[in-house]
Amino acid sequence: MNAKILRNLSFVALIIFTLACGLPGSQDAIETEPTPQEISTVIPPTEASINHEAIPISLPGLESGQAADFDSSIIPGSDYFIGGDRFTYGRLERPFNTQSMDVYYPEIDIVHTMVLQDDTWIYGLIVLNDVASTKLSEKRYGIELDIDLNGKGDFLILATLPTSSDWTVDGVQIFKDENGDVGGESPYFTDEVIAPGDGFEKKIFDSGEGDDTDAAWVRLSADNENTIEFSIKKTAVGEPGAFLINMWAGTNLLDPALFDINDHFTHEEAGAADKGLEYFYPIKAVSEIDNSCRMAVGFQPTGQEPGLCPTASQQAGSEPGSPGGSGKPGIIIRIFCIPSSCPADSFWDDGSCSCKPIK
Fold this sequence. Notes:
The protein is mainly β. Helix content is 9%, strand content 25%. The protein has helices at 3-21, 27-30, 36-42, 267-270; strands at residues 63-68, 93-94, 110-117, 121-128, 140-146, 155-160, 172-176, 202-206, 209-210, 216-220, 227-233, 243-250, 289-291, 295-297, 311-314, 334-336, 346-349, 354-357. Strands 2, 5, 6, 7, 8, 9, 12, 13 and 14 form a nine-stranded antiparallel β-sheet that branches. Strands 1-3-4-11-10 form a five-stranded antiparallel β-sheet, with no helix packed on it. It has a two-stranded antiparallel ribbon with strand order 15-16. The longest helix has 19 residues, at 3-21. Residues 1-6, 14-32, 34-44 and 313-335 have low confidence and may be disordered.
C-alpha cells in the first residue's frame, strides 16, 4: 500500500473520530455532572447519611435470662435423636437440608440465647455453632417479642448476618403484627384447621428508615465470633416492662408473613426432624430453620405460657427486695434447663428436663 492511500485512510479516520465526539453519549455527555435528583435515584441512602441520636455502646452487666438450645452438630453420623423439635408446639430444630438431612448448617444452629436490659435497650444474644462455616448464601437472624404475654408475637426483629463488631442498622428490620393474627386460634400451637393470617404485616423500621432511626441495631460480638448481638430500643416496641422473648435463625422461611410457621403448614407437609416420629420423619417443607424456647422477662411466669422455657432453677436473690437482689422492679433472672442429646432408645422431655425411654 503506497503512501498516498495511507494518507487518505488517515484523513477518513480523523473525520469519523471528529464526528463521533459530537454525537449524543460522547465525551461532552460523559463530562456533564449528574443532578442531585439523578444521584438519589441511583445511590441508596447509607447509614452515614442517617442522623443517629441513640447508639448502643456496651452490654449491661445484669442478665435478664438465658437458655440453651439443642446442639444439632452431634446428629450427622450418629444414632442420637434430635431434641427440641416439636412442630405442633412451635419448637423447631432443623438446621439441615430437606428430606435427606445429610447437610448440616452450623451457621443457623442456635446453641444458646441470652437477654439483657438497661433503661433504653433490650439486648438479645444468639450464640450459633459456627458462623464462619458458611454454607448458606441467605441467612437471617431474629428476635420475637410478645409484650402482652398472650402467647402471640407482637414484634419480629430481623437482621442479615453482620460483618463486624461495630453496631449497625444496616440489614435490620422491625415488623409488627397490628391485626393480632400471629398464632391463630391457639397461640404457639398448631391450629386444627390451617387458616394462616398475614403474620407480622407492618414494617416499622428498615435499616435506619422509620419513625425512629435508632430503633434496632446488630453486630457480631467482639468476644465471640459466633455470637450475634441485637439491641432493640424499648420505645420502638411499646416500652414493655415484661415480655416473652425467643430467638430465630434461618433462611427464606424466616419470613414475617409466615408466622406462626406451624399454622402455615400441616405436620405432614413440614415433616419432623426426630426419627422417633416415624410417620412425619424426615423434615420436608420446613427446613433450614432453628428457634429457641421463650424466656420470661420482668415477671413471674405461671408455667403455662406458650413456648416457655422449662425452668430448672431460679437464681436466689434476683427478685426485687430479696437478700442480695438488685431491688430493681422487673428484673428477674432464670437459669433454664439445658436440652441434652439422648441415646437412640430415649427422647428429651422438656417437662422433666431429662431423657426418657421410648416406649
